[in-house]
């Protein structure tokens, strides 16, 4: 494998890791606050459809992004009402939302555009076009670092940089702010937070809404940057891989970045069986590469790579003592 | 209550009346979806053309999951639809079990041979059409490297790839053909994101013309090629219009004609195997105003010459499915 191939792989890795990372951080907020969210997939799908449809109708990717966040927030709100206000089962609510998203996105897109549940191909300003970072052109000829900067780091949609920026932001919010402390506390011991006079419901709703916003960005990235429009089931299980990444990262923001990059790298590798064959020396079946993220997650869950302990109050609706 | 009864009675009479008339033909679309802008959409266009010309109506069903296959087929056959046309090789096994249960219903399957007394099998010589677009790809390529992106890794798609590679090598024996498949499950027919990444990967390896034979996945391939400023080749339907000036041509597979003919024959559908090739206009390549600037008269003349040779039998393109090997490429 030569350097150019490696760069190309890393470039693909970053593109694939972005929706995973956004969804993974989204899940991190929600689960750290004690609300399991298996509906990341559904929210992303809803967001992808909203952004694809609105961007196609208005010709503006930014309105599409807003619509994506709106669509995703709507689902997050339903999840919040079902699992926080009415103390329903969080997993069932999430699964239900996934099913609803799978159907309603196609239905809405079909009734709007009549193209079999697809939105029309986006062009020009309706897409999230790549930005060339400063100094990318002049640095291109610098050996080793130049091509790395030009090919891999520069030339992505602004949403990619937003996703990367969200990692330190999430770290800072969770570990350096009062809100973050309370959010983590509400996922570990909601009764203590309640005793301190802080609203458990309010905090959990806030976390679920943040999840909605991040999933919205992830969906918009899928529909306007990775692809030019929405297609049926276009998230293709990324919400679940993000959940796997979240467990792999043990619910920590920086680890989430590495996990998503790793999973993105596996996905990129699966596209280049020729490279894998060249490096390993034997022909590795593509499905085996596709399965790697899940295999790793199972290994982590089985305790081989340290222990993954979920937030203690995760999955349990909080009932105030009377 | 009485009103309700009357209404329901009227409705029942209507329904009976409809059933007593000439049976409606039906079509089942495979997982790529009716609007995949490619294979299934061609079938839909053929059905629509029949409906417009005859004023008739047809039943249709879009598959949503693999598990529905047999159920969908039985339901349409039980509803009295005749003939029932299905698009896609994947119906082969199911049809083999369902067809004997409905001896009075005629079935037509595209892309697969099912030997039952009431089944018409329509297969295409995709390798011939792919050979022609392969020649065109080699003629248009400046780097000497061209790409092929298939959908699900099955012999039928390898047949496309093999014909393509032969066409490329016929023009430029030193050319490199990069072959990729999207996946090994039917989901590979509808994964434009992966298609786009595969196309970007092939471009990074030097390909400047990419042929997509991947159903709905091809939409992503064509999009990525247009984004990256290289040429692409569409498949099944004429896809030149998707990105005018960026799609070199499309390998036409006249699925629409096959469906149209089947519907037109109606209940008198003749069972047996029907091979559609270059000679009977079953396959070909697309020329229209969207790609006129990309294809020079010399290129077209070269390709047409080869087409004439294939038609006359002077030139034989190797069919991957005949012996599961390809002289021009390895999968």
Features:
heterodimer; A: 322 residues; mainly alpha; ABC transporter involved in vitamin B12 uptake, BtuC; 70% helix; B: 331 residues; alpha/beta; Rossmann fold; 2 domains; six-stranded parallel β-sheet; six-stranded mixed β-sheet; 11 helices; signal (chain B); membrane (chain B); BMP family ABC transporter substrate-binding protein (chain B); Peripla_BP_I (chain B)
Question: Summed up, what is this model?
Answer:
With 322 residues, chain A is an all-alpha fold. Chain A has helices at 3-32, 40-58, 61-85, 90-113, 136-139, 145-153, 158-176, 178-188, 190-195, 200-226, 238-248, 253-270, 273-280, 286-301. Chain A is built from 14 helices and no strands.
Description of the molecule:
- The complex is a heterodimer of chains A (322) and B (331).
- Chain A is mostly helical.
- Chain A has a single domain (3-123, 145-301), classed as Orthogonal Bundle (ABC transporter involved in vitamin B12 uptake, BtuC), CATH 1.10.3470.
- In chain A, 70% of the residues lie in helices and 0% in strands.
- Chain A contains 14 helices and no strands.
- The longest helix of chain A has 30 residues, at 3-32.
- Chain A starts with a helix and ends in a 21-residue tail after the last helix.
- The model of chain A has no long low-confidence stretch (mean pLDDT 90).
- Chain B folds into 2 domains: 23-125 and 258-265, Rossmann fold (3-Layer(aba) Sandwich), CATH 3.40.50; 127-252 and 283-323, Response regulator (Rossmann fold), CATH 3.40.50.2300.
- Chain B has helices at residues 2-20, 39-54, 69-78, 92-98, 126-140, 155-171, 192-204, 217-228, 255-265, 297-312, 320-323; strands at 26-29, 59-62, 84-87, 107-110, 119-124, 145-152, 176-183, 209-213, 231-236, 247-253, 272-276, 283-285.
- Chain B is 42% helix and 19% strand.
- A 6-stranded parallel β-sheet of chain B has the order 2-1-3-4-5-11, with helices on both faces. Chain B has a 6-stranded mixed β-sheet with strand order 7-6-8-9-10-12, sandwiched between helices.
- With 331 residues, chain B is of the alpha/beta class.
- In chain B, helix 5 (126-140) packs across helix 6 and helix 7 packs parallel to helix 8 (217-228).
- In chain B, strand 6, helix 6 (155-171) and strand 7 (176-183) form a beta-alpha-beta unit.
- The interface between A and B is medium-sized, with 25 and 27 residues.
């Amino acid at each position: 494998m030569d350097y150019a191939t490696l760069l190309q792989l890393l470039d693909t890795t970053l593109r694939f890791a972005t929706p995973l990372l956004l969804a993974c951080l989204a899940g991190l907020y929600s689960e750290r606050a004690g609300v399991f969210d298996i509906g990341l997939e559904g929210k992303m799908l809803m967001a992808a459809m909203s952004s694809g449809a609105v961007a196609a109708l208005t010709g503006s990717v930014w309105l599409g992004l807003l619509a994506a966040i709106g669509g995703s927030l709507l689902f997050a709100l339903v999840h919040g009402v079902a699992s926080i206000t009415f103390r329903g089962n969080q997993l069932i609510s999430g699964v239900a939302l996934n099913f609803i998203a799978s159907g309603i996105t196609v239905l809405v897109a079909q009734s709007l555009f009549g193209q079999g549940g697809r939105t029309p191909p986006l062009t020009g300003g309706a897409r999230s076009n790549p930005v060339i970072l400063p100094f990318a052109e002049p640095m291109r000829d610098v050996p080793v670092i130049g091509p790395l900067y030009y090919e891999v780091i520069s030339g992505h949609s602004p949403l990619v940089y937003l996703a990367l920026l969200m990692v330190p932001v999430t770290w800072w919010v969770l570990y350096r702010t009062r809100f973050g402390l309370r959010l983590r506390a509400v996922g570990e011991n909601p009764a203590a937070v309640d005793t301190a006079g802080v609203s458990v419901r309010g905090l959990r709703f806030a976390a679920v809404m943040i999840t909605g916003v991040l999933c919205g960005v992830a969906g918009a990235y899928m529909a306007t940057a990775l692809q030019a429009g929405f297609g049926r089931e276009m998230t293709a299980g990324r919400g679940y891989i993000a959940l796997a990444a979240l467990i792999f990262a043990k619910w920590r923001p920086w680890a989430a970045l590495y996990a998503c990059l790793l999973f993105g790298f596996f996905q990129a590798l699966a596209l280049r069986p020729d490279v894998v064959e060249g490096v390993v020396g034997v022909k590795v079946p593509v499905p085996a590469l596709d399965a790697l993220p899940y295999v790793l997650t199972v290994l982590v869950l089985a305790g081989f790579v340290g222990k993954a302990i979920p937030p203690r109050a995760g999955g349990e609706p909080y009932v105030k003592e009377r | 209550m009485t009103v309700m009864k009357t209404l329901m009675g009227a409705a029942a009479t209507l329904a009976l009346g409809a059933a007593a008339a000439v049976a409606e033909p039906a079509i089942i679309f495979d997982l790529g979806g009716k609007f995949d802008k490619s294979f299934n959409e061609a079938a839909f266009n053929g059905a629509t053309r029949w409906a417009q010309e005859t004023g008739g109506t047809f039943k249709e069903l879009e598959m949503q999951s693999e598990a529905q296959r047999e159920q969908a087929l039985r339901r349409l056959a039980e509803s009295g639809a005749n003939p029932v046309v299905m698009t896609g090789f994947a119906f082969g096994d199911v049809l083999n079990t369902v067809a004997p249960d409905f001896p009075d219903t005629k079935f037509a399957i595209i892309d697969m041979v099912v030997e039952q007394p009431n089944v018409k099998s329509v297969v295409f010589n995709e390798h011939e059409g792919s050979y022609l677009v392969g020649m065109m790809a080699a003629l248009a390529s400046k780097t000497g490297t061209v790409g092929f992106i298939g959908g699900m890794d099955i012999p039928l798609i390898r047949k496309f790839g093999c014909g393509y590679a032969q066409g490329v090598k016929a023009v430029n024996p030193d050319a490199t053909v990069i072959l990729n498949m999207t996946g090994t499950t039917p989901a590979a027919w509808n994964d434009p994101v992966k298609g786009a990444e595969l196309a970007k990967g092939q471009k990074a390896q030097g390909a400047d013309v990419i042929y997509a034979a991947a159903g709905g996945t091809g939409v992503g391939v064509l999009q990525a090629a247009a984004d990256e400023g290289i040429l692409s080749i569409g498949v099944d339907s004429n896809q030149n219009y998707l990105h005018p000036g960026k799609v070199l041509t499309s390998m036409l597979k006249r699925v629409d004609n096959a469906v149209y003919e089947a519907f037109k024959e109606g209940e008198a559908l003749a069972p047996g195997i029907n091979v559609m090739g270059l000679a009977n206009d079953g396959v070909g390549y697309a020329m229209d105003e969207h790609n006129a600037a990309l294809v020079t008269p010399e290129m077209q003349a070269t390709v047409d010459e080869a087409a004439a040779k294939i038609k006359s039998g002077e030139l034989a393109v190797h069919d991957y499915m005949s012996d599961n090997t390809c002289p021009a490429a390895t999968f």
